[in-house]
Structure formats: structure tokens, C-alpha cells
Amino acid sequence: MIDCLIVGAGPAGSTMAKEMASRGFSVVVVEKRQEIGAPKRCAEGITKHGLKKLGIEIHPLGISGKIKGAMLYAPSGKKVVMEGTEMDGYVLERKVFEKDLASQAIKSGAKYMIKTQAIKMRKEGNSWVVSVNGIDGEQEIKTRIVIGADGVESKVGKWAGLKTANRITDYHSGIQFEMAGVNADEKYIHLFFGRDVAPLGYAWIFPKAFSANVGLGILEKAAKMRSYEYLKKFIKDHPEFFKEAQPIEINGGGVPVAHFTSMVSDGVMLVGDAAQLVNPIHGGGILRAMHSSIIASDVAEKALKEGNTSKERLMEYEKKWDEEYGEKTKKLMKLRRFLEKLEDKDFELLADMLEGEDIYELTQAKYRFLIKKLIRKPSLIGLAKKYLMD
Ligand SMILES: Cc1cc2nc3c(=O)[nH]c(=O)nc-3n(C[C@H](O)[C@H](O)[C@H](O)COP(=O)(O)OP(=O)(O)OC[C@H]3O[C@@H](n4cnc5c(N)ncnc54)[C@H](O)[C@@H]3O)c2cc1C
Question: Is 155 touching ligand 1 by the criterion CB < 6 Å?
């Protein structure tokens, strides 16, 4: 019998493992992949101030690029630059970053089982018995709490009886090459918008030490072809960046851009992508995944000490998350619905409006300044009223 079984050793799982083990609880992490952090399903961007806010320090080897801002490209190629201390950030080397997080958890006392997949779980009194299948064969682990840190394809929530199936329109389909030989200003991440570039999403270049992540996320219902075809087209359409470039890795994955599931059940907590916690505007989820685990640990600690791991007790985690992110996420969803309605010509107008503004604010749901500008544009006032002003 252990205190806490964590399914998945991504940023959410390893943060939870470190937090719980360092508070003296017995912790086991099962990770189905043979290597923690690989293959990555991520463009690896993260802000410095986000890390600082969470008190998370990363090993220098986990940092592959240093960024001072973002360049946004409208469909015509018009460029808007975003800079400022809040834009300072890193492009990580996730294969190292995630191993660093796991190593910190192990130093705190957590036990890791790699190439070991959780396959089912059943309730036994107030505990859970989780069946895992790994290189050492199948075994059962009895635990007081199960943490679902199993990412976008999470099964733990479903096994615990939670409704976790998101609407298909709330998943972005992401595809990416890591490429060598990309010719892009390495102090910036580069983001490209347009219906023909990445329908209802965006394309990106995130420069790294000697390569760059080049990818895009699209909403499939608005797409005329597969995301892979859009990526090839994007690369072909931009010889100024990719004339000499060659892929050295290919990655893909889904991004759950709308949080809707319940995050707890009796003896079960979902963290990170398993609870669909990414920022619905830019799809970034690493920081939110780690933050959810920090909040969840505070509640799990109290619940375990009190001997009450019921859903009602664990709901404090969901409540705290909502206090921190609920209102903001609702506003970001509105902004997303607004942006999804824009045609390419509207993106050009938007690029003009955003010039010289603190665009970072938009990703934090502070868009009053944008509304003031939109209501002066007859072609956009209707959309602004419908989606942003109620
Ligand atoms: C193309 C793309 C680009 C992205 N770019 C960015 C970015 O630049 N910045 C950013 O902040 N976010 C980005 N994201 C989102 C980010 O990758 C996720 O939000 C983040 O990884 C969530 O962390 P997590 O620990 O919740 O889940 P994950 O990192 O997905 O980890 C889940 C882990 O659980 C394991 N697992 C699953 N099921 C089981 C099982 N049954 N048993 C055992 N183990 C299991 C998986 O193998 C995996 O290791 C991107 C996502 C995609 C798809």
C-alpha cells in the first residue's frame, strides 16, 4: 500500500511526484514510455516569469534557446513584434528538462517505473488498486490516491468514472518538424496566422541551439487537408527561412484547448493535460501542468493526513484551480471564439491594431484595449459585440 500512485512522468507527473515525496509520502510514478521526455510532443516554449512565479528552477542543460520576444506574421507577411520582460523565455530541451524534473522527484524520495503502463484500476474500500504492465511483467499497486498525469490521452479520469471526452472541436491537431538549417532570428519565436497557413490555429518557428521547432496546430473541422500537408506547404512557402533546412525529428500530438472535465473523483485527481488545462489561446500547457500539480499536492497532503480522500475533500483542488484560472480561462475562450471567426483580411486589420500594444496582455485575457479599437472598425464591431462584450 502506497500513498500516491502517479500515472505519467511528464511535467505534471514529475512535479506532483517531487511535491508529494518531499512532504514524506510514499510515491510511485509509472511511465509507459521507455524514455522520460522522448519523443517530445511540444514546441518547448516557456516564459521565465511563469517559471519564477511557480518557484521552479530548471537545469541549464534543459535550456536550448533564449528568447526575448515573439514576431507575429499576418497572412500578408506584415510583422508585429512582441517584446517585454514577460516575453523573456526559453525554448527547452524537453528530453533533458523532463529527466531533470524526474531526477528532482527521485532525489526527494519518489520511485519511478519506466516502460510501465497503467492498464486499469479498481476500487477496494477507500483505496484504488491499479494494474500496471511493464518490463517486469504485470503487477498490482494499491494506493490511497491516484494522480492522473497521463496527458491528453488520459485514461485515469475515464477509469474513475469522470466524463473526460472533450468535443472534437476543442482539440487542436499539432504537427512539427525539428529542423536543422533554419534561417530565423533566434532571439524570437515566430508565429504565423491565416486560414491557408493553419486554419483556426497558427504555425510557429521556435529556434533552438542548433535547430528549430517548426510546426503548426489546426482545428481539423476547418481544414481542407491534413495538418502534415499544411506543414509541408508552410515550409515550401517560406524559402527565406527554410531554403537550407532539413527535418531531424518529427513530432505530433493533440492539444486540449478547452478545459471542461471535472478534476477529481474519490481518491483520484487529474493534473495537467489530463484535466485539459492548457491556455486556450496559445495552447501552452507546461506551466499550467506544473501549477496544477503544485495546487493538487497541497490538497492531497491535507486529505491524506486527515484520512479523507473522498471526492468532496479533493474538490478543494478544483475550487482553488477555478479561483486562480476560472475567470481568465472563460475570457480566453471568448477571445478564441472571436479569433476563430476572423477571415484573413481581418487578421491584417488586427495586425495594424496590435502594433505597439502589449500583446502579451491578450494571452492573459486582458483585452479591453482591443475592444476599444475594435468598436471603431465597422467590419469587426459585430463580432466584437457578440463574442467579447457580453
Ligand atoms: C505540437 C505541440 C506543441 C506544444 N508546444 C508547447 C509549448 O511550446 N509550450 C507549452 O507550454 N506547451 C506546449 N504544448 C503543450 C504541452 O506539451 C503540454 O501541455 C504538456 O506536455 C502537458 O504536460 P503533462 O505532464 O500534463 O502531459 P504530458 O507531457 O503529455 O505527459 C503525460 C505522460 O503520461 C504518460 N502516460 C500516458 N498514459 C499512460 C499510462 N496509461 N501509463 C503510464 N504512463 C502514461 C505519457 O507517456 C507521458 O509521458 C504543445 C503541445 C503539442 C502537441
Answer: yes
Q: Summarize pLDDT for 297-340 with one digit per residue, the tens.
A: 999 999 999 999 999 999 999 999 999 998 888 888 888 888 88
For domain 168-255, the CATH superfamily is: D-Amino Acid Oxidase, subunit A, domain 2 (3.30.9.10)
The alpha carbon of 157 and the centre of ligand 1 are apart by a number of angstroms equal to 16
- Regarding the beta carbon of 285 and ligand 1, being less than 6 Å apart is answered yes
**Closest of 337, 330, 153 to residue 259, by C-alpha:** 330
- Tell me the residue type at 233: K
pTM of the predicted model over 0.90: yes
Cα 372 to middle of ligand 1, angstroms: 37
CATH superfamily of the 2-66+91-166+257-331 domain: FAD/NAD(P)-binding domain (3.50.50.60)
Ligand 1, atom 37, residue with closest C-alpha: 150
CA distance 324 to 334: 18
Cell numbers placing 65? 534557446
